[in-house]
Write a structure and sequence with these properties.
homodimer, alpha/beta, Spermidine Synthase, Chain: A, domain 2, Rossmann fold, 2 domains, 12 strands, 30% strand
Chain lengths: 287, 287
């Protein structure tokens, strides 16, 4: 039971647990220059991408993550014209970003071109906006990208990366955040996936503190379910250059959004930013 | 990998997935007159109770379920003096209910005394209010209890049961709901666990419809994370006898709650009732 080839299991060694998906077929496997990528056909979750043994994206539930990593930040920013997505090689965040007519350019900077090439083949729906003239797909090191970018040149940076180990480690430290602060316009926002509130509460606290130490003036964390990720409960953390940069919410625009979603809406926006009692107290104490 | 005796796995056969916990020891196992009960010591989730192969409660994350199955309903009702808990043999919901000073009597009616006896031994924290003079623990069939109870005799009925298969099946049908309507006072509320929004959306819709057909005038569903339950995302559904019975929220009382919680607070209360976009549309269409 729960053994390959019928099951793919991701074990969470520090949290004594594992999530498994029943697979009908391994569609692809390769070692890219950066990581090991596997694609499976599953019984209920549709197509599944696994990177370095961690489940990344499935047809069935990716809408939760992609909607919540994008729309809350985009409707918080007063006028998000330029967006960078660091990571996000499966193109799901890019697709959501491009639903916003205000966005004039969305640049996706993923270090590993193979993730995108495989997404184009196995997740065509996520890649359905790749040909949008506002989209630019670059295969570069995101850390180097922000280091070399012009000051005050972007409205929103979305860090849609793997966990803070391996290739993505450098996307969770003060040096990276300082470069983000520099690149963002005065009302700019950084949005980054920030792991599980149940498994990684300390990491969320540390990340918020590091963002503040790097020069961000405000941070807010949002919460959403995500079956495929450790504990089934996930978070994203927003940081703004301006002290009031996260207080705004273009609520009327969100209520009148010109696109379909499965999870996000204006009420979910507000609800997602409510912290659980105990974690909220820790956020408050840390300020 | 992921095999007994080192792992306990619950497989979700209709959803091609499984959640596994690393166990250090099986502490107890028995076949009660109603179900198979197992108790494990786990590596990270503390003590774990399993009933008929389904993970029921762990030290680590039971606060989510128990807080969300009780406090939203108690702070929605204008004056919850009498509460029945159908099921709930681990006593975790009873403990949360008794935190409310308004409650004068809380009756727990679980068909299986063995669940409670084992909870007393292995989950002493959940049973820490069992000696409260307001608590009454009965080991009876909940269906029979509501059938024989006096009309308009209770303010709040909480159905804290296993899944709608096996012993709990009769707690999810119109006949049971009709008896609940009869037993509830005019401003009475029923609160029932209603499975996973990702895996069982159709069940939630059907349950709300059945409640309405049985005579409840209004229904509302709330959402919360629950790592141990299928998909990691769970729900509870409230039904009221009066059309306005779910519109109230004693928000000032919830903000000033005289007890500690780990997840619930007044803002979580409001946030939890926000439905995901697609599911909310289905709720609306079904009305």
């Amino acid at each position: 039971m729960l053994q390959a080839p019928h099951w793919f299991s991701e074990v969470y060694p520090h949290h004594g647990s594992a999530f498994s998906l029943k697979v009908s077929e391994k569609l692809h496997e390769e070692q890219s220059p950066f990581q090991r990528i596997e694609i499976y056909e599953t019984e209920w979750f549709g197509t599944l991408m696994v990177i370095d043994g961690c489940t990344m994206v499935s047809d069935r539930d990716n809408y939760l993550y992609h909607e919540m990593m994008t729309h809350p930040a985009l409707y918080t920013h007063p006028d998000p014209q330029t967006v960078w997505i660091i990571g996000g090689g499966d193109c799901g965040s890019l697709k959501e970003v491009l639903k916003h007519p205000e966005v004039g350019q969305a640049v996706q900077i993923d270090i590993d071109e193979r993730v995108t090439r495989l997404a184009e083949r196995y997740f065509p729906d996520l890649c359905s906006s790749n040909e949008d003239p506002r989209a630019r797909l670059l295969f570069l090191d995101g850390i180097q990208w922000v280091r070399e970018a012009a000051a005050e040149s972007v409205d929103l940076i979305i860090v849609d990366s793997t966990d803070p180990v391996g290739p993505a480690e450098g996307l969770f430290n003060q040096a990276f955040y300082r470069e983000c602060v520099r690149c963002l316009k005065p009302d700019g926002i950084l949005a980054q996936q920030s792991e599980s509130p149940l498994f990684h509460a300390d990491l969320i606290l540390a990340m918020r503190a590091t963002m503040q130490q790097a020069g961000f003036a405000a941070t807010r964390t949002l919460f959403f379910p995500q079956c495929l990720y450790p504990s089934g409960w996930w978070s994203g953390t927003l940081a703004s250059k301006s002290p009031t940069g996260l207080s705004g919410f273009r609520e009327a625009a969100a209520r009148d959004k010109p696109f379909e979603t499965l999870y996000y809406n204006a009420d979910i926006h507000t609800a997602a930013f409510v912290a659980p009692e105990a974690l909220g107290k820790r956020f408050h104490l840390a300020q």
